Amino acid sequence: PKPCEVTPAIIMKSYACQRRTPLKHHNSFLTEPLEILAENAEFSENEGRSLAFRRSAAVLKALPRAVRAMDELKDLPCLGEHSLRVIKEILEDGASSEVESTRQSEQFQAMKALTGVFGVGVRTADRWFREGLRSPLDLIHTGQKLNHAQQAGVQHYNDLNTPVTKKEATVISDIVERAVKAVLPGAIIILTGGFRRGKEVGHDVDFLITHPEEGAEERLMPKIVNWLDEQGLLLYQKTTRNSYLESKEGPARPPSNMDRFERCFSIFKLEQTKVNSDTQVEASSYNSSTTDRTEEYHSGSTWRAVRVDLVVSPYSQFAFATLGWTGSKLFERELRRWAGQEKGMSLSSHALYDSKQQRYLQANSEEEIFTHLGLEYIPPSERNA
Ligand code: CTP
Ligand code: MN
Ligand code: MN
Ligand code: MN
């Protein structure tokens, strides 16, 4: 190395919400293995352990270059003993034995397959695993009792485990826009979740809906759902009412960080037209419910199932809802942790409460929320922690 070549010191803040984390980074060879261990910890409901691995991975995602040696990590926050051990092994041997044996383990693979069914959480998957089940097919063969969501999850398993493309998200955006505008003119619809952060693919498409006239958004979801259903665009939907006003826990602290907006977890029936053996997506022809699938196939048209999340927020909470539904999940957790531990504030997707001043802080934009929190503004594309 040239004697005058100095590696500039990297200043790495310890909360992910204080840093810029781009989608594409230089350390996937380390972050993917660490996230396998995080996922495995989630499968055994060890949240603390999972969070430690996720935080380590997030620090590496924010680095401006690939890590080559352990001494480059000495001034970085959040890297625990266990994560460092894994990183060291990968740097020295090209792989971590713990990660590789986790990847290969029957339990990890079964939990991955079973939680990959829409409507199935870790608890249920773990119970099934202990009963000897390993895959979605086993659920059918053993005649497991499934709720409506899980039935749809099994039925559309392959489609729902096929990543949603940006192009498909755009087609779905057009459909949702048409539905919402038809039932509430003047409504505002934004794409949230991973696609707002610039992801090329996602496991679903997330939307947030509001109306500038406070109250106009009340009970909007059933109308949107009816419209979509009448067009034959829904394979499954579960709408939950807004329970924010009835909640007794205090607005900024709903249990388990779940928000209380009117929401709909759905599965869309997305038309696809095959053109020159290249699969193209298209807005639905609106007669799909009356069209026989064989006929669709022969006419070159078919469909696939796509997960879509719809959330309705009152205008006064829209900035908080936008911030809360843009993610990433770790970025959101870190924002709430920062608010609580560093600012004596309580942040949710509904509001920001300042415990010292004993009052709610209003905001009309995400920028204002970052300012209230004493944080530099981080745009959505840099929230990929
Ligand atoms: N979210 C939430 N409450 C839920 C589910 C999700 O507040 N019950 C928020 C998450 O915190 C996240 C955003 O909604 O900020 C999007 O969640 P999700 O769709 O699960 O993840 P994405 O980041 O969009 O990634 P993917 O591409 O896998 O969908
Ligand atoms: Mn870079
Ligand atoms: Mn999403
Ligand atoms: Mn979602």
Portion of residues in beta strands equals 15-25%
Q: Measured on Cα atoms, how large is the radius of gyration?
A: 23 Å
Number of strands: 11
Regions with pLDDT < 50 over 5+ consecutive residues? 285-296
Q: Termini, distance in Å? A: 33 Å
Q: Any idea what the CATH superfamily of the largest domain is called?
A: Beta Polymerase, domain 2
Major sheet details: 6 strands, mixed
Under the CATH scheme, which architecture of the largest domain would be assigned?
A: 2-Layer Sandwich
Enter the CATH topology name of the largest domain: Beta Polymerase, domain 2
Structural class: alpha+beta
Structure description:
Helix 1 (28-43) packs antiparallel against helix 2 and helix 1 crosses helix 3. The longest helix is centred in the middle third of the chain and has 18 residues, at 166-183. The chain is globular. It has 385 residues and is of the alpha+beta class. Residues 285-296 have low confidence and may be disordered. The chain contains 16 helices and eleven strands. It folds into four domains: 16-102, DNA polymerase, domain 1 (Orthogonal Bundle); 106-155, 5' to 3' exonuclease, C-terminal subdomain (DNA polymerase, domain 1, Orthogonal Bundle); 164-315, Beta Polymerase, domain 2 (2-Layer Sandwich), CATH 3.30.460; 318-382, Beta Polymerase, domain 3 (2-Layer Sandwich). Strands 2, 4, 5, 6, 7 and 8 form a six-stranded mixed sheet that branches. The protein has a three-stranded antiparallel sheet with strand order 9-10-11. 41% of the residues lie in helices and 15% in strands. One manganese (II) ion is lined by residues 193, 204, 206, 309.
